[in-house]
């Protein structure tokens, strides 16, 4: 149990949730709920790993992962935006489709090794005591991208003109349409962006944080945790980042807890019988539910909430939002 | 350049023809098989051989067909569980976890034991059915209560509880009830086995090797019960009203919070019954991975059946076949991929039910002088 190691690992694994969560925030801000994050992540993880294996270039893998996630998300976009299908069902089927495609196309990738994204230090900052080694040393460059990403996306959503358009489309598409914003195009754009980020999150796993292709175990439900995170974060990138890193650190702390013989002076039951670890593994999932309880209550109290048009198809000329 | 045809999409004002919903479902399955075939061809497999193999493994003989029905049995109950919840627009994605809890509670009857070990078969099996349904209902109650009380999104909570249920089962089969260190409990006594057709092979030669068990009757009875509840009972009317128009339901004075909890429990109980039938009818013990994702397939089954309880039975047989076939071929994701394509095709084709889509010949353009 070493705080610095836990923090370091938390930032690395949190980056996965961060990318997926912010992608989902963008999509939901435009009014499209995409429950297919798990499927897009898995397809991204497979595409990234497969490309890196074929070309020897992990950066190309990252790009392919983003394209794969984005391409899959467009299926959801087409069905929900143009065909006005139920977004919940469509998102669920996207998960099936992404998972199935990833398993079929990724057949034979298990056990392979590829060139990974190399870890690096940030010169200067890495020398700061405690924070340096935890935040700025020995991380994948993607982690540093994540640091920059959160403020940029926040600024984009809240302070720029396209960000204003994005929010308008998610809150009141008919008003946005009247103002000359192309609602359909905006929605497609952010669904695609969300898919790309989910794919990137997947490749962050398979090419950097816990490298390799372990079929469906590669993501093991992190896509769903990311969706829960978005609700907890109330569609705010800052809160999403905080939640993602906390979650990552917690996962690591749980793992480390099993290796400690004494806990606060008592014998650690986990050290004697590793099967108690099953209960510890439940913690992230239970915490997601608790985070939702807190998030939903806070949202209700502050009258903050989901984008008003979330889940509602927009048809020009029909009564509605 | 102008295309010779224009696609017109307009909102339906007429009634949907009665044959169209069924036709879109069948069309969706066919379209999904074609697209999946293309993907199979891309990875170097011959789709015709794969599908031919699928057919042989699932409907090719009585024994194969019996296997298909055995796999369809849990799907019927899980599909009904999803259909009930979806009718109220309650997205219970947790049938998988409710299935596991049902299996766990049913196993308690034998492993604790709850009824004395030398009880007659009918008593053991009845206790298992009741406990299985209780187990599933508990796992449905939790997300239902959280949604009613704290407005917690049920999609996420039911999904998270799936993982918790599987880990919970793992603890017991890895630790407390492990059979000589294996990840399973000892095989149950024969009194806890649902009767199978092969049990009667001595009287009827044709039944030897036929693994079909009594659970399929549970599924059929459950379908009738669900049909009656949804379309004949007062409660079912409330469920449909809340699903179609929650505001109208609220103004009519219906207790929505109470219905959320009750429907989730009903849904969970059906999924739990499926878990019981699988433990008692197929594996005869509690072990790891008793479900190859039945809970998730149930979602597709319910949707493809357009939430109709009797259509659920037919669709379950189709998907039971897909599971049987999927076990026999590599790579393992093929049946999951086909399921994904089917569901996508179904929801896309729904546009045909809501809109009139017509191809209209555009008037020929006059040659410019």
Keywords:
heterodimer; A: 321 residues; mainly alpha; B: 369 residues; 2 domains; two-stranded antiparallel ribbon; 2 strands
Structure in words:
The complex is a heterodimer of chains A (321) and B (369). Chain A is 68% helix and 1% strand. Chain A has 321 residues and is mainly alpha-helical. In chain A, strands 1-2 form a two-stranded antiparallel ribbon. Chain A starts with a helix and ends in a 20-residue tail after the last helix. Chain B has 369 residues and is mainly α. Chain B has 2 domains: 1-43 and 335-369, no CATH class; 73-311, no CATH class. Chain B has 13 helices and 2 strands; from the N terminus they run βαααααααααααααβ. Chain B is globular and about 80 Å long. The chains are: A mainly alpha (321), B mainly alpha (369). Chains A and B meet through helix 3, helix 4, helix 10 and helix 13 of A and helix 6, helix 11 and helix 13 of B.
**Euclidean distance between termini CA atoms of chain A:** 52 Å
| Shape descriptor of chain A | globular
The helix/strand order of chain A is HHHHHHHHHHHEEHH
The overall pLDDT of chain A, averaged over residues, is 87
Low-confidence stretches of chain B: none
Largest interface: A-B, 53 and 48 residues
Count of runs of 4 or more consecutive helical residues of chain B: 13
Give me the Rg of chain B, rounded: 23 Å
Q: Which structural category do the helix and sheet elements of chain B fall into?
A: mainly alpha
CA-to-CA gap between the ends of chain B? 17 Å
Mean pLDDT of chain B: 88
Q: What's the order of the H and E elements of chain B?
A: EHHHHHHHHHHHHHE
Major sheet details of chain B = 2 strands, antiparallel
> What is the count of β-strands of chain A?
2
Number of helices of chain A: 13
